[in-house]
Amino acid sequence: MIRFEHVTKVYDRTSRPALDDIDIEIDRGDFAFLVGASGSGKSTFIRLVLREDRASSGSVHVAGQNVARIPSWRVPRLRRGIGVVFQDFRLLPNKDVFGNVAFAMQVIGKSRAVIRQTVPEVLRTVGLEGKGKRLPHELSGGEQQRVAIARAIVNRPGILLADEPTGNLDPATSVGIMNVLDRVNQNGTTVVMATHDGDIVNSMRRRVIELSAGRVVRDEAAGEYTAMIPHVRADGSRELLPAGQAIAPFDTEEDEA
Ligand SMILES: Nc1ncnc2c1ncn2[C@@H]1O[C@H](COP(=O)(O)OP(=O)(O)OP(=O)(O)O)[C@@H](O)[C@H]1O
After folding, report:
1. Atom of ligand 1 nearest to the CA of 53
2. CA-CA distance, 23 to 53, in Å (whole number)?
3. What is the pLDDT of residue 134?
4. Could you report the average pLDDT of every consecutive run of 10 residues in the chain (257 residues)?
5. Nearest to 26 by CA among 193, 230, 156, 178
């Protein structure tokens, strides 16, 4: 569904690539977490899928299409097949819940009859039945994110990209949002979620793609937030430690040198 072939992205006026020779495939129906420190390239990955930016080299394929070959006038059609959810919800403040979701259908020319039928169905999917007339400021953060997800999926995209969707939410509310994303995935949508939320990654046990300085340093089918890597103790015995901690003995040696 999403294929990166040796993709490198170097932004103007920077020397270090934001993405460095990324070669990865995310299949139809997958659920993949993108993890990695701030600045490791997660948002850049998402921007390239949406063709908000172009790869400096290599190619990005979405639903079988090389996005660099799509003429500008057809980019909106590419994006119509991709729902996007952000950390800060980005709802229209003067439209109610129904209006926010309906708007995504109006802009692609859906009829009023179809909108009237579809929006309540989608609001039910995200757990917001009966809240169609509320304005965004009358909703909790978790409810606002549910509206954002409803809006992202109402046109049945093949892909849902979520950039830190639980970043502004407390842990309990985040679990509710993950249940919604899981349901969306079970309905066949490929979900890619960039996150710093270790608890969520560890509880979901889905594919984990870890970026570090623009490179894929880990890609596990049912991974955890932090990789556990083998570490040899001074006495020769072995233990599993989080990747960051396992390099400590080498730092010590350097300090002494
Ligand atoms: N428009 C830009 N111009 C120049 N450099 C950029 C631009 N956008 C991102 N970068 C740089 O590219 C690298 C990757 O940034 P990116 O935003 O993709 O990281 P991220 O993993 O999403 O970080 P975060 O977790 O903080 O959102 C960083 O070094 C960043 O400074």
Report:
1. 1
2. 18
3. 97
4. 97 94 97 94 96 96 96 93 94 97 95 97 94 96 95 95 94 92 95 94 94 94 78 78 56 45
5. 193
Alpha-carbon gap, residue 59 to 81, rounded angstroms: 19
Which residue lies with its CA nearest to atom 30 of ligand 1?
39
Residue with tokens 């290599």: 58
* Mutation pick for ligand 1 pocket among 4, 9, 11 (CB with most ligand atoms within 8 Å): 11
DSSP state letter for 246: H
Q: Is the CB of 18 under 6 A from ligand 1?
A: yes
> The whole model's pTM is what?
0.88
- Token pair of 252, please? 């010590």
pLDDT of residue 102: 97
Q: How far is the CA of 196 from the centre of ligand 1 (A)?
A: 15
The residue type at 162: A
Please say whether the beta carbons of 21 and 8 come within 8 A.
Answer: yes
